[in-house]
Amino acid sequence: MTGPSATFGFRDVDASEKAGMVRGVFDRVAKRYDLMNDLMSGGVHRLWKDAVAARLNPQPGEVIVDCAGGTGDMARRFSKMARRAQERRGGEDAKVFVVDYNAEMIMAGREKGSLPEMAWTVGDAQRLPLPDGCADAYVISFGIRNVTDISAALREARRVLKVGGRFLCLEFSRPTTEALRAAYDAYSFKVIPEIGARVANDRESYQYLVESIRRFPDQKAFAALISEAGFGQVGWTNFSGGVAALHSGRAI
């Protein structure tokens, strides 16, 4: 490597190469991404996502950025919740921007169907195609560990949020007990790549996804990065014993 490095699974690669390598992974998994999430988590990821949507509590007229929104799982939740709130008490339509670096993921999401509140675009989490201070909320789910520069993505989240805007990040994290960590490691490294090989005919991509989880900062370290990016009231809620965590903050 001749320049700055970035993590790609357990490997360190040239930072300039990571985005293309990650794009290749998601090009390969896009068509079966949602099925694989169900198989890998036993459907539990849906409960985690429901909890994120409940915490966000989307409201009529709000602008919400669903970064690394992929196939639109989260955006559909936000849109439906905002519409139900609108039916109860009126107000303008919410707007949910689904932004993902990977065009194949966006295409797979649009094929699943869209809602009037949703707008789809291909974009980089480190350089969002949105103006300063335009959003009431920013959510990124299982995406930030794939960016080249996590701190840059967090600063970009702060840039597009209004002062006081809500930041939510759902990501795989560090199990809170040694016993759970051992069990989770055994499952992750032995079972998940095998599922990828059998269902998606792609062991390599799912091996990367497992490794990328292990290289991601733990809850405390990630919270510190969020604070450094310009957020206050930073905290986190562990799901399933810390297998995943929801980090939150307010733009200051």
Describe this structure in words.
- With 252 residues, the protein is an alpha/beta fold.
- It has one domain (26-251): Vaccinia Virus protein VP39 (Rossmann fold).
- The chain contains 10 helices and 9 strands.
- It has helices at residues 15-29, 33-41, 44-56, 73-89, 103-112, 150-160, 178-190, 192-199, 203-215, 219-228, and strands at 5-8, 11-14, 63-67, 95-100, 118-122, 135-141, 161-172, 231-239, 244-251.
- It has a 7-stranded mixed sheet with strand order 5-4-3-6-7-9-8, with helices on both faces.
- The relative contact order is 0.15.
Task: Give a concise summary.
This protein is an alpha/beta fold and 252 residues long.
Low-confidence stretches: none
Principal-axes shape call: globular
Number of helices: 10
Q: How many beta-strand segments?
A: 9
The top level CATH class name: Alpha Beta
Give the mean pLDDT.
Answer: 91
- Give the helix proportion (percent range): 40-55%
**Beta-strand content estimate:** 15-25%
Q: CATH superfamily, please?
A: Vaccinia Virus protein VP39
